[in-house]
Design a protein that fits this description.
The structure is a homodimer of 260-residue chains. By secondary structure, the first copy, chain A, is an alpha/beta fold. The first copy, chain A, folds into 2 domains: 165 residues, SPOUT methyltransferase, trefoil knot domain (Alpha/beta knot, 3-Layer(aba) Sandwich); 68 residues, Helicase, Ruva Protein, domain 3 (Orthogonal Bundle), CATH 1.10.8. Chain A has a 7-stranded parallel β-sheet. In chain A, helix 1 links the parallel strand 1 and strand 2. Chains A and B meet through helix 1, strand 5, helix 5, helix 7 and helix 9 of A and helix 1, helix 7, helix 9 and helix 10 of B. Chains A, B: Its EC number is 2.1.1.200.
């Protein structure tokens, strides 16, 4: 189970944290670390703090964008410290680990995304996630070091795995599902297609987009669409684009559509 | 509850670990740190790694022996990594936190004891404890940093305390939501509108509907749309209907739509 989980660190500034993260991961049986646009290097400090978990550092994947890091993942959970102005599905670490344990047997990869030491993840990055995880902290002092947050999540994942191995899984909705989940990359394709279509039909004004796309992302991401559902939705969008008359466009008699 | 708990570190060699432990504790709402015969000092490195949890360091208690540290505690749990030759009551961190949560209301102080970076606690030190706690780790790599072990235990203690104090619901997605859910009648209105629109644009053939509408119902119903989301979707459907040219219909130049 644990090899289907990717720990993603965004824009990390301290190499010691990268090393400590690798150590925490290896202790809990995880091995896949991805750095998105890291500011720190995987240097001597990182290796020293990893304390013999260097193999994880040697196999680290480094990418430029978060989208790239999570494109193949069926479930993406981002760490969130503050409440954001659109509520988003939120779990504690135990629930997040239980969710991962449900999703993995069906073949889905899972990503847990951790933000910058200074300011966590941006709203845009959080909007890419299916759900958020919040580690319960002292309301008067909430400044969890990123490697310690990774430690807590990896511990819960291991606990869930140990529990899993003695239980049968029934997936996130209580029944075995009929299709694999859409990957994050496939969902991105859907949302881009959706946004373009909504602009084309005049429903979304690109000059005043407001919160429409985040709300639609939230709606669809929390239902964890499978690949067939994404295909259906994209088929609908394609048909809408084909059949709409765009404002200001030259009128084209739709001979090809008649009789369909 | 958490102020009845003492974190005890025995013979610590790295001051950074003392600082990181203080930070982990404060994040989780604990405040009482005791050092037994520390080799490291509470120095600049410790203060720096504590990242504004210095008050915990300033209040640290320093004693010469473990017996002194735990003399007033009703429950003493020691961390144990290796199996010892006399089996001893052993718990995982979740069980340890549950035990602490049971014992504290009766007025007992609790101590959680952590050993040396190099070799943990000695057999004699472990024999002073009522029970042992083992953090489940990768059998091929078990080298949890002491501050990370403290982080995990403090997290479980906080989770036990939070569970104790709050049984209130926060809705199905883990956060208070921003709008009330759509009623079943409103969802029915949405699905009928959707079905009609999909027929109008030629995506759904009413003669061979197959499982399209049930699949769409399943997708949307499991995301439990709120009233605003239903309004957005119906607004989209209305705009699609307005902007599409229907198969077989007389061409109507869309003057009203131009410029919108």
């Amino acid at each position: 189970m644990l090899d289907k989980i990717q720990i993603v660190m965004v824009n990390t500034t301290h190499s010691g944290n990268i090393g400590a993260a690798a150590r925490a991961m290896k202790n809990m049986g995880l091995s896949r670390l991805t750095l998105v646009d890291p500011i720190a290097a995987v240097d001597e400090e990182a290796i020293q703090r990893s304390s013999r978990a260097e193999d994880i550092l040697h196999n680290v994947r480094i990418v430029s964008t978060l989208e790239e890091a999570i494109a193949d993942c069926g479930l993406v959970i981002g760490t969130s410290a503050r409440s954001r102005h659109i509520p988003w599905p939120l779990m504690n670490p135990r629930q997040a680990a239980a969710k991962a344990a449900e999703m993995i047997p069906a073949g889905n990869d899972v990503a847990l995304v951790f933000g910058r030491e200074s300011r966590g993840l941006t709203n845009e990055e959080l909007h890419l996630c299916h759900a958020h995880v919040h580690i319960p902290t002292n309301p008067d002092f909430s400044s969890l070091n990123v490697a310690q947050a990774i430690q807590v999540l990896c511990y819960e994942l291991r606990m869930a795995m140990v529990a899993e191995e003695t239980e049968e899984e029934e997936g996130q909705w209580g029944v075995p599902w009929d299709y694999p989940l859409a990957t994050h990359g496939e969902l991105e394709g859907l949302f881009q297609h959706m946004e373009k279509t909504l602009i084309d039909i005049g429903f979304l004004d690109p000059n005043t987009p407001k919160q429409l796309m985040p709300r639609l992302r939230r709606l669809f991401q929390r239902s964890a669409p499978d690949k067939t559902e994404v295909n259906i939705l994209r088929g609908m969008l394609a048909m809408i684009q084909k059949k709409t008359v765009r404002s200001g466009q030259e009128q084209t008699p739709p001979q090809t559509e008649q009789g369909e």
